[in-house]
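Dear support,

I submitted the protein below through the web form. The confirmation email said the job was done, but the results page showed an empty box. After a refresh the structure appeared. I'm attaching both so you can tell me whether what I see now is the final result or a partial one.
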Amino acid sequence: MFDRPDSGERAVLVHLDFHRDSEKEDPQEFKELVVSAGVEPVDFVTGVRDQPSPRYFIGTGKLDELKSVVEAHEAELVLFNHSLSPSQERNLEKELKCRVIDRTGLILDIFAQRARTHEGKLQVELAQLEHLSTRLIRGWTHLERQKGGIGLRGPGETQLETDRRLLRARIKAINARLERVRKQREQGRRSRKRAEIPSVSLVGYTNAGKSTLFNKITDAAVYAADQLFATLDPTLRRIEMDNVGPAVLADTVGFIRHLPHKLVDAFRATLEETVNADLLLHVIDCADEDRFDNIEQVESVLSEIGAADIPTLKVYNKTDLLESPQCRIDRDEDGVPERVWVSAVTGQGVDLLFQAMGELLGAEYFENILALTPAQGRLRARLFELNAVRREHYDDQGNCNLDVKLQRRDWNQLLRQLEISEDQLSMVGPVVHDRV
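What the results page shows now:
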């Protein structure tokens, strides 16, 4: 839409508080977004209203004040911490004589700067085009209608119609390419499922420390920085866990208040890594004063993408910033891990995180040593067919001791097929294996 320099733009920020707005935007978070976009904020205009003005979003008095501030600082850009309609953006630009971008446009710009992979760039472009499709008229008001007269009548389309047609064609092409990406990801997930490799996905509010924790767990070199949306492209790594074996850990994009729906739709192929995970690690900045609000925002987005029912372990990160840091596992009344307190920077508590993850994922597996008699050879054969036998040896009585591990649902299904109950089997007991 605009020719944007890499950095150094002087911008005036605008934030309004509405009396009836139950979900107010955070001015401090807005400043962090602006800095993450590489913009230099020169002033912050605030105000209070009962409801937005249909024409300018702000009142005429506040508009005059904003004009004076823009002229005094010679600002090239005005950023609103709100969602503006296309007509409001057009009217404001006409009055302020500079570019006006709302919160959604700012987030889209940050995503465009951070996209590294081909898939990420496609997803950002799709979101930007869908956002731009409602704002095309701003650049072509002088070509809204064709002129009449000799030689100008007849079939044809305006420049605006041409742009919209080209835009629709480009959006259709990107959707087709992202559909192929989605199918490739689905194929990879099916392969991991057949191999009984569980998947764990890191989710959380932006700048909660997900990538730092990911690097600490996997010894990866994912870009991590103290800024909003440092991670945009998903990264997958293989890890080893006690009593579970291999697993796949995914680092995903962070969430934010009022995440634009265009972004949620465009990044659906990436977010499917979260939707199809066996366990979610909800990383939380425990030193953030707004952590409870951030938790609600993340849970809202998870519900929106259909991941609300996936087992979740809350990981309270950045304990090193607390006055009395203490790494521990908090459990519910049944003894199931609910929260783990860690520090991704120092590495403290990571062993507790592995322990909690192993308990939650291992609960879905049947793992034991079976003492089978020669008459139970059919069960032994089926366990080998399922690739569930890890070790086998015979005792002095001729019984076969099988160290087995398989998913609980497969174990229950096998017992039903062979019409055997667990009470009829002799079990030596589970074996604790060292982490690989």
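Response: this is the final, complete result; the empty box was a page-load delay. Residues 1-7, 140-154, 432-436 have pLDDT under 50 and may be disordered.
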